[in-house]
């Protein structure tokens, strides 16, 4: 959903530029984090709660949070700045302001250890299905960017998007490692770190669909 533009948006984004990767090329991550690190990506990170918690709990890993809407990403960036000011800075996370469409523009092949797709936009009209983040062309591109043993974790409230995603996975012949239509009634640890949307849907009693691929 499009958000109303935040006040003083550009000025506030500039004030948080140290938490952003402004030139997010494949090489940038080696320069920012050093090579050989385990690198995890969230596409469509929203206000960043999920990825901030992941980065905080796993200081040995490095995290990239990509979000295309300026007003939305600003919330995540300002959380990082507040933490920094409180002496609780998080050095293993960078935000990228972009809508990712071509993975190769951002990442080398065989580089990422994991990709998170949390509550992606459903794009319900059939003519928009290529825009769905779990379209087979995108899943193929994610697999290329992942190292052997790398994973994709997908959570969604949207049952139609989930059905579509399973169809795409089956069409590609990818093996499913974990799967449930009710994540919070399951034993899967993926329920332990929640996104903003997840908190909302869980408290309203909506089931959350989940699938994990390991390559
Ligand atoms: C429904 S929201 C979910 C936000 C968050 N992941 C959560 O679970 O609370 C989906 C977000 O993905 C972003 N988005 C959609 N397509 C994207 C893309 N290709 N690259 C980056 N962000 C994207 C949208 O701008 C939106 O903020």
Description:
There is one protein chain. By secondary structure, this protein is an alpha/beta fold. It has 8 helices and 7 strands; from the N terminus they run H-H-E-H-E-H-E-H-E-H-E-H-E-H-E. Strands 3-2-1-4-5-7-6 form a 7-stranded mixed beta sheet, sandwiched between helices. The longest helix is centred in the middle third of the chain and has 16 residues. The radius of gyration is 17 Å and the shape is globular. The two termini are 32 Å apart. Bound molecules: S-adenosylmethionine.
Write the layout of secondary structure elements.
Layout: H1 9-14, H2 28-33, E1 39-43, H3 49-57, E2 62-67, H4 70-85, E3 93-97, H5 103-106, E4 112-118, H6 136-145, E5 146-156, H7 159-172, E6 176-180, H8 196-203, E7 209-214
Parallel strand pairs: 1-2, 1-4, 2-3, 4-5
Antiparallel strand pairs: 5-7, 6-7
The structure holds S-adenosylmethionine.
S-adenosylmethionine is lined by residues 43-46, 66-69, 72, 99-100, 118-121, 195-198.
What would the keywords be for this entry?
about 220 residues, alpha/beta, Rossmann fold, seven-stranded mixed sheet, 8 helices, 7 strands, globular, binds S-adenosylmethionine
Shape: globular
Strand proportion: 15-25%
Mean pLDDT comes to 97
Tally of strands: 7
Class by SSE composition: alpha/beta
Radius of gyration based on Cα positions: 17 Å
Question: Biggest sheet: strands side by side, in what order?
Answer: 3-2-1-4-5-7-6
Question: Which ions and ligands are bound to the chains?
Answer: S-adenosylmethionine
CATH class of the largest domain: Alpha Beta
Tell me the CATH architecture of the largest domain.
Answer: 3-Layer(aba) Sandwich
User: How many individual domains?
Assistant: 2
Question: Helix share of residues?
Answer: 25-40%
Tally the helices: what do you get?
8
Largest sheet: 7 strands, mixed
Considering the protein shown, what is the CATH homologous superfamily of the largest domain?
Vaccinia Virus protein VP39
Q: Classify the fold: give the CATH topology of the largest domain.
A: Rossmann fold
Low-confidence stretches: none
């Amino acid at each position: 959903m499009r958000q109303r533009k935040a006040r003083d948006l550009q000025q506030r984004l500039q004030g948080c530029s140290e938490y952003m990767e402004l030139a997010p090329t494949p090489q940038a991550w080696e320069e920012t984090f050093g090579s050989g690190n385990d690198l995890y990506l969230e596409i469509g990170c929203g206000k960043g709660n999920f990825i901030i918690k992941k980065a905080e709990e796993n200081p040995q890993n490095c995290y990239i949070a990509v979000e295309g809407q300026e007003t939305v990403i600003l919330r995540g960036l300002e959380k990082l700045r507040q933490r920094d000011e409180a002496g609780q800075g998080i050095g293993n996370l960078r935000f990228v302001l972009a809508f990712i469409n071509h993975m190769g523009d951002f990442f080398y092949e065989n580089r990422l250890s994991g990709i998170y797709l949390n509550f992606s936009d459903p794009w319900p009209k059939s003519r928009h299905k290529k825009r769905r983040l779990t379209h087979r062309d995108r899943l193929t591109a994610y697999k290329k960017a992942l190292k052997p043993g790398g994973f994709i974790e997908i959570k969604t409230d949207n049952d139609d998007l989930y059905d579509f995603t399973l169809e795409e996975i089956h069409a590609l012949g990818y093996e499913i490692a974990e799967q449930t239509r009710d994540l919070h009634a399951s034993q899967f640890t993926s329920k332990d770190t929640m996104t903003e949307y997840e908190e909302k849907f869980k408290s309203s009693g909506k089931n959350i669909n989940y699938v994990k691929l390991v390559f």
